[in-house]
Amino acid sequence: MKYILLILSSLFLTVCSQTISILSPTSGTEITPGQDVTVQLGFANSLTGVEHVSAVIAMINCAGAPCPSDASDTLGIPLFAGNYTPELHEGNLPPYQNFTVTVPSNLAAGTNMLTAAHFVLIGVSAVPVLQFDNVTVSTPSSAGTRRETSIRGRTVLV
Ligand SMILES: *[C@@H]1O[C@H](CO)[C@@H](O)[C@H](O)[C@H]1NC(C)=O
Ligand SMILES: *[C@@H]1O[C@H](CO)[C@@H](O)[C@H](O)[C@H]1NC(C)=O
Hints:
globular; binds 2-acetamido-2-deoxy-beta-D-glucopyranose; Phosphatidylglycerol/phosphatidylinositol transfer protein; Nis1; signal; Immunoglobulin-like; 4-stranded antiparallel beta sheet; mainly beta
């Protein structure tokens, strides 16, 4: 029993300390509709086996209302969905992968939310874990032209 508890608690710690994080853009960054933005998705280095399955980067158009508090209800408008393979680049940052995505051109002015979801298998028994992160960004009110929403996303190979 003690042994099982030990395994469970170390598994819990493992799952909690290894999580997806949006390193860039940072909270409060100005995001302009229709423009490309580099999203830096990091995952803290670890000693246990981790198999990254996929990631989604999305934008919630909060449209002047408070942004939702739970990403498991909605991710918003998907900007990228696909493989996630973080690598160690700069030593002061956790392993990450850069994605260049296009900000939807109909994004409302004000506070909006960039969200990320990550599906990962952790440990030798491949515990399936779905994790989220988000940053609030600010969209300036501008006379920018309103075009069709772009759901185009592309990966920057590094
Ligand atoms: C955004 O992140 C905060 C802090 O981790 C969390 O409390 C909130 O539920 C998240 N919201 C969404 C929509 O993911
Ligand atoms: C990833 O993007 C950030 C922010 O644009 C940049 O500073 C960094 O050099 C990029 N890293 C790689 C490996 O391209």
